[in-house]
Amino acid sequence: MNLPPPFLCIADDATFWPWFTWPDFSEWSNKDDTVVVIPLTGFADWGLGHPLDAEEALLTHVLRAAVRRREADLRMLVVPPLRFALGPEPGCAFAVEPEVLHGLIDEVAGSVGAAGFRRIVLFNSSPWNEELCRAAGRDIRIARGLQMFCISLSGIGLDFHPIRGGTRDAVKAILDEIASGEISANPGDRGLGGPGAEALAAAAGRLVSLFGEIRSRPPLANGGVLRIVSTT
After folding, report:
1. How far is CA 117 from the centre of its chain?
2. Contact 90, 231 (CB under 8 A)
3. What is the CATH number of the domain that holds 73?
4. How many CA atoms lie within 13 A of 160 on its CB side?
């Protein structure tokens, strides 16, 4: 009897890493051109009337919409979200230290690289993790020779920050419509929702554009290995 796969998170099944087998990866063509996304979310009460996993709910819905709207020739994979991140504010929960998060990102990126993929996007939801994502991306680029990119929700118009994000109307509208079922988790449902669905579609469109830019970047020279130039 064929059982449905377990529910791990909101994701596009056709690009979700856990649903592929090792033979799939061994036979994968054009690994250098495949974009692999590592979602990074945290747990926090952002004062918007939603559970602590609001970041994951928002990020995964936007990511799934973007992946489904990408160009047909853009190959992508998405790994499950890294759910334990920095949490410097009282409303944060299950926070980890910077060294722990850095190590977790490095471990997952290293596993992706070991499977033969070279282009990795760190897609982050929390304003408290933006600087660490950029630092981790630079460190992984240097140490592992992987082509790293960092995108945050704030960069595509959705910001949880209580001050920098203004009133956060778009964030709250999307979360409200997810909670009410107006924005559905069912793959076949389209055209549902109101202002939140419109805001989600706009953010997904920006993300699709960024994925296109990432695809257009040439591969790293020298296989990603940095050459040390002596000044003496």
Report:
1. 16
2. no
3. 3.40.50.10310
4. 31
